[in-house]
Amino acid sequence: MTAQPQPHSPRENKYVQFAKYCTVGVLNTLITLAVIYLCKSFLDLNLYLSNAIGYIAGLANSFIFNKNWVFHSKGRYRREAAVFIMGFLVCYAIQLFTVWAITTSWAGTDLYQLTPDIAITPYGIATLLGNVAYTLANFIYNRSLTFRHRR
After folding, report:
1. Is 121 exposed, middle or buried (0-12, 13-18, 19+ CB in 10 A)?
2. pLDDT of 29-65, one tens digit each?
3. What does the angle CA 30 – CA 9 – CA 17 come to, to the nearest 5 degrees?
4. Which three-class secondary structure state does DSSP give residue 38?
5. 3-class SS at 112?
6. In terms of CB atoms within 10 Å, which of 28, 67, 71, 94 comes out highest?
7. CA dihedral angle for residue 136, residue 137, residue 142, residue 145, rounded to 10 degrees
């Protein structure tokens, strides 16, 4: 007797989900940057409008891929979209606070000179750590609230 393949579990391994979530994040970044570039360079839109349109495109992509590919959610789009946007705002605030806290606590700290042309600043380190905080918080938020599976 051969083992039958198991149907895809909507709650697959959280590490696999996190890897897929990070893949979507890379795709979001590429889409965001491409849309900003296209709006600014080819459509000659204002820098800030181009930036906003780029982030909206990345956020829309993030919602669609996280809903359908990462979390395999069958929930209602309107409810999940609202909770997803709220999660983005909450996690962005966490990221912003992280950047602020690190930057202000390291105020006056010298640059870390890697090469004659490349230096790491406290703000650069804070931005990187803020991005890590955002990524972890947003994954947990979306897994726990936005795309949780109801029984």
Report:
1. middle
2. 999 999 999 999 999 999 899 999 999 999 999 999 9
3. 30
4. helix
5. strand
6. 71
7. 140
DSSP state at residue 119? E
Entry field: residues in the chain: 151
Please tell me the pTM assigned to this model.
0.81
Phi, psi of 71 (to 5 degrees): -105, -10
**Residue pair 111/119 in contact by the 8 Å Cβ criterion:** yes
Gap between the Cα atoms of 115 and 101, Å rounded? 27
CA 7 vs. chain centroid, Å, equals 29
Residue 110 confidence (pLDDT) = 66
* Both structure tokens of 118: 């490349």
Spell out the residues 6+ positions from residue 42 whose beta carbon is closer than 8 angstroms to its own.
Answer: none
pLDDT > 50? residue 89: yes
